[in-house]
User: What shape does this take?
Amino acid sequence: AQSVTQLDSQVPVFEEAPVELRCNYSSSVSVYLFWYVQYPNQGLQLLLKYLSGSTLVKGINGFEAEFNKSQTSFHLRKPSVHISDTAEYFCAVTPLGGYNKLIFGAGTRLAVHP
Amino acid sequence: DSGVTQTPKHLITATGQRVTLRCSPRSGDLSVYWYQQSLDQGLQFLIQYYNGEERAKGNILERFSAQQFPDLHSELNLSSLELGDSALYFCASSVEGGYNEQFFGPGTRLTVL
Assistant: This one.
């Protein structure tokens, strides 16, 4: 079985500051990893994904994440946030050969203040 | 706009009732997934269909059922509703098997009174 832990339920940050949202996972098999964003009253949108290859993954809106297999982590970073980045961020995994079902963390609410 | 549509947007009903949520996947997508988002359980995978056949099941209650029709739209049926079934229900679609990006619809918010 797989599980995902997002270590912070809320992250407040000032505009133009850097941010890191932390994600750890547990799995007995190899997994693919994802970060999704949910803006208020909307569905989820894929920010980035790690399937294989380079452990540093770049996504949309200036976000990037680094896969660390030894620490089973996939932290999301942005060097300078904007007010418009205020949203809920979800880390998710799917086991290889697991028919693509996503297992989500509890989410991190990013609040960007002026 | 992801291209996935869900109807209705909001649904308010009473305990013990039955409701049907509808999802139309993106054009060309063969797989449909249903997820439930609630305050206490978070985002949970319920069930997946691929080209009309059930492919994977998650934490779906026996009171819930789903199907995918020949035109690839899907319906999630929730019966004998309880207060705890109040949640946001998302549908997602992807092209086919292997790993492919899932595109999420805007969700249906179900309130059980």
User: Anything to note?
Assistant: The radius of gyration of chain B is 13 Å. Chain B has a mean pLDDT of 93. Chain B touches chain A at residues 2, 4, 31, 33, 35, 42-45, 48, 55-56, 58, 90, 92, 94, 97-102, 104-107 (CB under 8 Å). The CA atoms of residues 68 and 74 of chain B lie 4 Å apart.
